[in-house]
Amino acid sequence: MKAVTLNSFDTPPALRDDLPEPTPAANAVLVRVRGSSANPVDNGIAAGMLKQMGVEYEFPVTIGRDYAGVVEAVGSEVSSVAVGDQVFGFLLHANPTAHDGSWAELITVPENISIGKAPRGVDLAAAGAAPLAGITAMTAIDALELSEGDTVLIVGATGGVGSFAVQLAARAGATVVAPALPEDEEYLRSLGANEVLPREGDLAAAARERYPNGFDAVLDLVNYGPGVPASLVKDDGRVASPTGAAGEGPGRTMVMAAPTPENLRRLASLLSEGSLRVPVQQTYDLAQAPEALAAIAGSHTQGKIAIRIV
Questions:
Q1: What's the CATH class of domain 3-130+278-308?
Q2: Which residues contact 13 (CB under 8 A, 6 or more apart)?
């Protein structure tokens, strides 16, 4: 079986073709993967991030979290999906070691988490780029409790999570403000952003000049510590972040994506009905997946970087 693996901390992830095909346990599902994506956490795992958090690496470690594909076999206790079903989800970072990943031709997934029916009418290559970023965005927008007329500042709006969050915030009726480069404006407006602020220079000053009373809500997808100036948030405003930028206190929420059946059903529904789309900037084949890691780490992205597995 082919997969992209990290074989030691001394070598970068690379394609292998000699791995054994997995066999599903009684409560697990065997999925032939057709699509995935590159996420910042994939670079973190490849760099040993989980080891620093006390998680053991069980080499070879297959890279990749997201997936979409077709059920190839099911364990004897599985009842929610059947052979031939199209499914999607994302794998937990460590369960309990760092070992399993989705950049492989075949993966096994427990029936009770990390798997749901894929969205109808959405190509599997696109569906495979949605779960981690899409559910992170859903969770963040839920935490911000946006309603008609709210103003929300989304820092990091052009990335994978941000691109979904802009769409969801606009769907909630909020006025969406996004710091970005000039070449991002058309892209962000196509997702539903109402106003684009210059990303270069003093962003806080530019935001205060335009919104002197502050924002009802701020989503920070960029900073890795409390980084939202109080002056940007109204007294009763809300701040959410998956990176630790929200800080602590009333209205401040650290969000984490959970691949629960409920979250996957909800994401699939949004994608199926067209309320949410998967903006894919570039697609790499499995053999090129290590290049996708370099691209997400070193280039400016608009949306998702997808992995196609044929």
A1: alpha beta
A2: 4, 5, 6, 46, 63, 289, 290, 293
